[in-house]
Amino acid sequence: MDAQKVVLAGRLALTGVLWRMSGKTTGVYCRAVKKHWCETVFQSPQRLFCNVSAPGQNRCFFHTSTPGQKRWFFHISTPGQNRCLYHTSTPGHHRWLSNNSTPGQNRCLTHTSTLGQNRCTSTPGHCRWYSHASTPGHRRWYCHTATPGPHVCIVGSGPAGFYTAQHILKNHKTARVDIYEKLPVPFGLVRFGVAPDHPEVKNVINTFTNTAANDRCSFLGNVTVGKDVTVAELRQAYDAVIMSYGADADKEFGIPGENLPGVYSARAFVGWYNGLPQDKHLAPMLDTDTAVVLGQGNVALDVARILLTPLSILKKTDITDHAAAALETSQVKTVYIVGRRGPLQTAFTIKELREMTKLPDCRPVLDPADFTGLEDKVKSLQRPRKRLTELLIKTSQTGGATAQETQRLDQATREWGLKFLRSPLEILPTQDGTRISAIRLGVNRLEGSDSSARAIPTGETEVLSCGLVLRSIGYKSVPIDDSVPFDSQKGVIPNTAGRVTGCKGLYCSGWVRRGPTGVILTTMTDGFETGKAVVDDLTTGVLQPLGGVRGQEWIQPLLHKRGIQAVTFEDWNKIDNEEMMRGEKVGKPREKIVEVKEMLQVALSGR
Amino acid sequence: MASSVLFPASARFLSGFRHFSRLSRAAPASFTSLCRPHNHSLSTTARNFSQPTPRAEKAKVTVHYSMADGSTVTVQSKEGENLLDIAIENDLDIDGFGACEGTLACSTCHLIFQQPIYDQLEEPTDEELDMLDLAFGLTDTSRLGCQVCVTKALDGLTVKVPEGVADARDV
């Protein structure tokens, strides 16, 4: 197939992908506009415009958030001719911005007042077009470098991996970064963890996509490190190897009944509604009126919110089709979110709590007694905890702030509540043992106050009827390979500032380094810190360059021999487009492909 | 160069979207519409979209970004632009700035203001304060850059980019 593709990258989005076959334009897909063959279409009009006026003449206009300002301008007038213009806010000023990677002349910033004039040189160190062998007809910017730089390998393509890559590519001018990923699709928990009704959090994908567009960065999906290739092999091939594979197991209570039908880990439940291939068959039992979520972190609130959000809202998100269908018949009316400690020790953040208080057709049921005496204490708390506690107290007071709000709460058909100072002791089956009927909770008291307070059992117990239990007490990292040290007590790879203890050239980043907590900002910080350690070690000579044929050129033949077909970022773009096209047909931003086999089919099509 | 067919539809859709975005709590891209200075006709904007003719002149505002490394970068912006977009437009080198692209889903565009300037700004919303709570190095005069639009009255203001987030955790 004679397909040509041009990818536009910008701050706002990897904005458009254009396919041309046999010299004739067959379609334009604008990612941000989420439209195929878009003709005067506006999805998010304060940001982006897209227009296709005539076959063979395609135009994509991308409008920034500031009205009146132009950013990306893409124009193909003659088949076979590609032009990528960056239009700054100064009218009439165009420049090439096809590439911003390699040392020295990475940025091909040739001013050209004559459209179509391409003045990129092929001098070493400069950039030129070259034909990509693996995809026929596919061309990409390639940058010559006189001396090949060091090779860096990142294991895991979630936010930790991408932020680490970003820092290294920015601060080391010749390093090449290869990101390995078990699945054929990148972005880890941004794709499989972030709730479908939080699309704005997923905007970081645009930054990651820009990182992947860097010529010194490669994505190798569908490669399981530890199975398809060992860490030892990677360390032979790369000057530095970074573990950022996250935490994909979960903590358990080890209580009777934990494995009964109707008890699930929140991690699997999240994977199920977010299209994680391994969780697609979860089929949680939603034919019950009461669900109990054990744990009081943001994941607990996420799963509670998904259980309680009206389907009309969820249907417009990228929630998987199978989850939407199951939630449509869900009987769940009440969700209890249970924590072993008190209101001052909850782990969720205020944004997620505020969302719960505003859920349509849903009412919070908090026991005011849980908050007695806190009004005085609240004043001495640090701002985040203070505002969170104030919101909890306010929510616990009966009625809304306005008559309208009170009416909304009174008419709600669903409800949620927080239960404090309760630890699960046993999950009880129904008489026939086919599902669960209740959970027995032990009542605790607190020893100490503030965040370090400990829960001490009082010996009292109570039974709460429920038909669904979601265990949400945290994710857990697991060892990847015997050659990498692992602290199973803390569930992390032992390290100092990202350098793995006792293993020169081995690094770690993200949850596997720090433990499974924190928001995207925490992981970004973490990634930058590990990236800095790598760059420092590469530039100060701590790591001696391996030289010779290294990096993926060394690994790819190994994979080939083992029958593993690595998925590139260009391949992922095909999956991405396919998903968005499927989503468009049903009025969603995307319909995720949930089978690895199908992902590979789409990814490797046309090769 | 651009099709003129584009614009009537855009104007209609834009105004519809603006209305919607006010009602919606966290609609992406709604933040600019919250900036008062933008409330003038958007159709004017659209009409001028692909034409080099200058649109109605907006007052220029000088902004000084006091960077984490101690240097100061001075940039020109126009009234109504927010401090995140201004930083991006001017290629300011701040690691990870604006990760969620101004949709109130992170706190990476955290900026610190001088008290007199802070007092002139419109009150932050609960949602902005919620995100600020998670910012490293939070101060009493902290705001999110994406939520603060510059006005002529703020001309010459200095905003401080907080210490590198990594440093804050190094202690």
Automatic annotation (TrEMBL), chain A:
<keyword id="KW-0809">Transit peptide</keyword>
<keyword id="KW-0249">Electron transport</keyword>
<keyword id="KW-0521">NADP</keyword>
<comment type="similarity">
    <text>Belongs to the ferredoxin--NADP reductase type 1 family.</text>
</comment>
<feature type="domain" description="FAD/NAD(P)-binding">
    <location>
        <begin position="151"/>
        <end position="307"/>
    </location>
</feature>
<keyword id="KW-0813">Transport</keyword>
<keyword id="KW-0285">Flavoprotein</keyword>
<dbReference type="GO" id="GO:0016491">
    <property type="term" value="F:oxidoreductase activity"/>
</dbReference>
<dbReference type="GO" id="GO:0005739">
    <property type="term" value="C:mitochondrion"/>
</dbReference>
<keyword id="KW-0496">Mitochondrion</keyword>
<keyword id="KW-0274">FAD</keyword>
<dbReference type="Pfam" id="PF07992">
    <property type="entry name" value="Pyr_redox_2"/>
</dbReference>
<dbReference type="InterPro" id="IPR036188">
    <property type="entry name" value="FAD/NAD-bd_sf"/>
</dbReference>
<keyword id="KW-0560">Oxidoreductase</keyword>
<dbReference type="InterPro" id="IPR023753">
    <property type="entry name" value="FAD/NAD-binding_dom"/>
</dbReference>
<comment type="pathway">
    <text>Steroid metabolism; cholesterol metabolism.</text>
</comment>
<protein>
    <recommendedName>
        <fullName>NADPH:adrenodoxin oxidoreductase, mitochondrial</fullName>
        <ecNumber>1.18.1.6</ecNumber>
    </recommendedName>
</protein>
<dbReference type="InterPro" id="IPR055275">
    <property type="entry name" value="Ferredox_Rdtase"/>
</dbReference>
From TrEMBL, chain B:
<keyword id="KW-0001">2Fe-2S</keyword>
<dbReference type="InterPro" id="IPR001041">
    <property type="entry name" value="2Fe-2S_ferredoxin-type"/>
</dbReference>
<feature type="domain" description="2Fe-2S ferredoxin-type">
    <location>
        <begin position="59"/>
        <end position="165"/>
    </location>
</feature>
<keyword id="KW-0408">Iron</keyword>
<dbReference type="InterPro" id="IPR001055">
    <property type="entry name" value="Adrenodoxin-like"/>
</dbReference>
<keyword id="KW-0496">Mitochondrion</keyword>
<dbReference type="GO" id="GO:0140647">
    <property type="term" value="P:P450-containing electron transport chain"/>
</dbReference>
<dbReference type="GO" id="GO:0009055">
    <property type="term" value="F:electron transfer activity"/>
</dbReference>
<comment type="similarity">
    <text>Belongs to the adrenodoxin/putidaredoxin family.</text>
</comment>
<dbReference type="Pfam" id="PF00111">
    <property type="entry name" value="Fer2"/>
</dbReference>
<keyword id="KW-0479">Metal-binding</keyword>
<keyword id="KW-0411">Iron-sulfur</keyword>
<dbReference type="GO" id="GO:0005739">
    <property type="term" value="C:mitochondrion"/>
</dbReference>
<protein>
    <submittedName>
        <fullName>Adrenodoxin-like</fullName>
    </submittedName>
</protein>
<dbReference type="InterPro" id="IPR012675">
    <property type="entry name" value="Beta-grasp_dom_sf"/>
</dbReference>
<dbReference type="GO" id="GO:0046872">
    <property type="term" value="F:metal ion binding"/>
</dbReference>
<dbReference type="InterPro" id="IPR036010">
    <property type="entry name" value="2Fe-2S_ferredoxin-like_sf"/>
</dbReference>
<dbReference type="InterPro" id="IPR018298">
    <property type="entry name" value="Adrenodoxin_Fe-S_BS"/>
</dbReference>
<dbReference type="GO" id="GO:0051537">
    <property type="term" value="F:2 iron, 2 sulfur cluster binding"/>
</dbReference>
<keyword id="KW-0813">Transport</keyword>
<keyword id="KW-0249">Electron transport</keyword>
